């Protein structure tokens, strides 16, 4: 079992969720890279290092869930995803300089959300959704639909895209749990890990559709 975990904004390699995944899934190889803070660099980093690698599942939380949508060749589990990241980050995090939640291997202690940061997220959002007809979900690619799952906390007051996911992906691939935006240890143990096992055990529908590169 090989899993790629993409952390959210303000986080790093020492975040709780991948730590708990490693503890609760000792048989799995959990790849937990530190994602660059700037959006364009983050997507380029993910594409360059992981797009062509084989994983049983890609898990992305919050902004990592937004980035996980660029992993077109893989099964993906979006956890409380910032699906409209440009709007979500501008509203939920806000402009300005913020401290990272945990220590970073690159030594950075702060990151900045400014107009350029939000514009980079907007460009990535346009690339993710450009081949999706949001007015006609039936035209979305069936392979991408089959490979995309999501988990939403019913008390998430940071970002809330359960209904959006159900409109554009498969409603039966959207799961809810009693909790907020940041996963507690009990959420990881009682909700996330069982769902990860369930998704990995489901047959892989394969992928025949690839979006254009972020060039």
Tell me about this structure:
The chain has 215 residues and is α/β, with parallel strands linked by helices. The chain has one domain (2-201): Rossmann fold (3-Layer(aba) Sandwich), CATH 3.40.50. It is 37% helix and 16% strand. The protein is built from 8 helices and 8 strands, in the order E-H-E-H-E-H-E-H-E-E-H-H-E-H-E-H. It has helices at 16-24, 39-50, 63-68, 85-93, 115-129, 142-146, 162-168, 185-201; strands spanning 2-6, 29-31, 57-61, 76-79, 96-99, 110-113, 148-153, 174-177. The strands form 2 sheets. Strands 2-1-3-4-7-8 form a 6-stranded parallel β-sheet, with helices on both faces. Strands 5-6 form a two-stranded antiparallel sheet. Helix 1 packs across helix 8 (185-201) and helix 4 runs antiparallel to helix 5 (115-129). The model is unreliable at 206-215 (pLDDT under 50).
Q: Quick gist of this model?
A:
This protein is of the alpha/beta class. Helices cover 37% and strands 16% of the residues. The strands form two sheets. It has a six-stranded parallel β-sheet with strand order 2-1-3-4-7-8, sandwiched between helices. A two-stranded antiparallel sheet has the order 5-6.
Features:
single chain, 215 residues, alpha/beta, Rossmann fold, 8 helices, 8 strands, disordered C terminus
């Amino acid at each position: 079992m090989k899993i790629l975990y993409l952390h959210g904004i303000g986080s790093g390699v020492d975040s709780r969720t991948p730590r708990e995944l490693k503890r609760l899934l000792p048989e799995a190889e959990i790849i937990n890279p530190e994602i660059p803070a700037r959006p364009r660099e983050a997507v380029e980093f993910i594409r360059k290092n992981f797009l062509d690698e084989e994983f049983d599942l890609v898990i992305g939380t919050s902004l990592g869930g937004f980035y996980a949508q660029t992993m077109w060749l893989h099964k993906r589990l979006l956890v409380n995803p910032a699906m409209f990241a440009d709007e979500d980050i501008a509203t939920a995090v806000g402009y300005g300089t913020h401290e990272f939640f945990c220590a970073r291997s690159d030594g950075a202690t702060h990151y900045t959300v400014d107009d350029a940061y939000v514009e980079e997220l907007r460009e990535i959002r346009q690339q993710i959704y450009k081949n999706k007809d949001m007015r006609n979900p039936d035209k979305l690619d069936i392979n991408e639909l089959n490979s995309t799952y999501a988990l939403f906390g019913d008390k998430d007051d940071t970002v809330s895209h359960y209904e959006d996911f159900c409109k554009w992906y498969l409603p039966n691939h959207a799961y809810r749990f009693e909790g907020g935006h940041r996963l507690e240890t009990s959420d990881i143990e009682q909700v996330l890990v069982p769902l990860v096992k369930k998704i990995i055990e489901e047959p892989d529908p394969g992928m025949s559709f690839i979006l254009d590169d972020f060039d």
